[in-house]
Design brief:
This protein is mostly beta strands. The chain contains two helices and 33 strands. It has a five-stranded mixed sheet, with no helix packed on it.
């Protein structure tokens, strides 16, 4: 009996010692030669035909790729490891992608490594061939508008107002080797428009598409722009957003200034700039253009403009300037969509020795009172009067009831021309006033209109 047991153990021992896993892999070669842009899934079957548990892992070995290839994942597989009991098998999905590949032959080995002692590694050859890249649509726009997630007009523009067109440039590139056909670019909100909306692009070419927003009224605008093409992703969607707010309104007062200035004098003029609209007003001094000046005035900075708290301070310096007429335009820029640039007209006559332009320096033959300038006026006006001979003279201003409201000049004057300025105080009403000059040579009158 004891000998029989020993014999049975000896017969069973080789079977115990030879129990092991056995790996079988099918297929051992995978090839893909489909159309550009296609993706193919292949099944790689791994089976354990042995008597013990099989443990395996898959390692990717790249054998060949064309120079300049930019795509790393043209071959992928899942799962990449596992364990199989005796008699079990498992399907591994091997995916080959020709999206974005340059022309050429791609080759790799899937090294299936296991604990099979007789065949610890099985190589599965993978070959992919492509004749070029399909149309690849690439999009780009300025990052200030939210690239690459959204086109947001309020991120890129300080102001967005109704009934104003705000463009954003979208660059479309064909990064493939075949013709890219843009069939349509359309938004689901009519406030957003793309131009052009259909075109073709040669490989490597670019084209700028202008995507514009123009809302009819104040409010929030949302939309999606759809780009339909023969790209691998046939339709691309881009979110759109804009909020249109009420615009400001630029008000300038006065819009023009005219004055007579004695050479050597410096005059300052205040121009009020206010906002009559809904949105915040931003404005600045754009430029000063000299329209006219007499010969010899070249290079003399006789006019300057500076921003002050309530608007604009214009300073006119006649020192060193030749006699004559000086004209300039001051341009104000703003974010008022209806008035992005406004002009203030300036006209001055520079005189020497107190003589108004066009008059001789010699005394007049009769007593003369000139027309006030400017007229109408707001706050200040200038009157010139001439005396034919030395003597006493009085210059006063009266309202229409005959009440004297201002005494501008009085006393003894030399023969010739003299100047008087009237600064109308704030406590007198707007209206028509009479300036009266009286002297030994008689009397002269002039009408002045005060506006508030």
């Amino acid at each position: 009996m004891k000998k029989m047991l020993m014999l049975m153990l000896m017969l069973m021992l080789p079977a115990v010692l030879t129990a092991q896993p056995r790996i079988e892999v099918e297929p051992q070669a995978i090839e893909f030669g489909g159309m550009n842009g296609e993706v193919e899934e292949n099944i790689l079957n791994i089976a354990n035909t042995g008597d013990e548990i099989l443990f395996f892992t898959i390692i990717l070995e790249i054998i060949n790729e064309p120079d300049g290839n930019r795509v790393d994942d043209w071959v992928t597989f899942e799962p990449d490891d596992g364990a199989l009991a005796p008699g079990e098998d498992l399907d591994v999905v091997v995916t080959l992608s020709r999206i974005g590949l340059i022309e050429g032959i791609y080759e790799a080995n899937l090294q299936v490594r296991s604990n099979d002692p007789t065949e610890p590694q099985v190589d599965v050859n993978v070959t992919l061939q492509t004749n070029g890249i399909p149309p690849v649509l690439m999009l780009e726009w300025d990052e200030v508008f939210g690239y690459p997630d959204i086109i947001d007009w309020n991120q890129g523009y300080l102001d967005v107002f109704p009934e104003v067109r705000y463009p954003v440039e979208l660059t479309v590139t064909n990064d493939g080797d075949e013709m890219l056909a843009i069939e349509d670019i359309v938004a689901d909100n009519e406030a957003f428009v793309a131009e052009p909306s259909a075109f073709e692009l040669e490989p490597g070419a670019q084209r700028v598409v202008t995507v514009s927003f123009s809302g009819e009224e104040v409010g929030n605008y949302e939309g999606t722009m759809h780009i339909i093409s023969n790209n691998v992703d046939r339709e691309i969607a881009i979110p759109l957003h804009a909020v249109a707010s009420g615009p400001p309104r630029l008000i300038i007062d006065p819009m023009s200034i005219e004055d007579d200035i004695d050479i050597g004098d410096v005059r300052e003029y205040n121009v009020s700039i206010t906002n009559g609209g809904e949105g915040a007003l931003r404005w600045g001094i754009g430029r000063i253009i000299v329209i006219r000046e007499p010969g010899g005035a070249e290079g003399i900075e006789w006019i300057t403009a500076t921003r002050v708290e309530l608007g604009l301070l214009i300073r006119v310096n006649s020192a060193g300037c030749p006699e004559g007429q000086y004209e300039a335009d001051i341009f104000i820029t703003s974010n008022d969509p209806a008035r992005p640039e406004a002009m203030i007209g300036m006209l001055f006559d520079f005189y020497r020795l107190g003589v108004p332009g066009g008059r001789s320096a010699s005394p007049p033959t009769t007593l003369i009172l000139g027309v006030p300038f400017p007229n109408p006026f707001n706050g200040r006006t200038t009157l010139w009067f001439g005396l034919p001979a030395p003597g006493e003279a009085q210059l006063a201003v009266f309202d229409l009831t005959g009440r004297e409201v201002a005494r501008l000049a009085g006393g003894r004057f030399d023969a010739g021309w003299h100047r008087a300025d009237w600064e109308a105080p704030g406590n007198i009403a707007a209206g028509v006033y009479l300036a009266r000059l009286s002297g030994s040579g008689g009397e002269a009158r002039a009408k002045a209109v005060l506006v508030r």
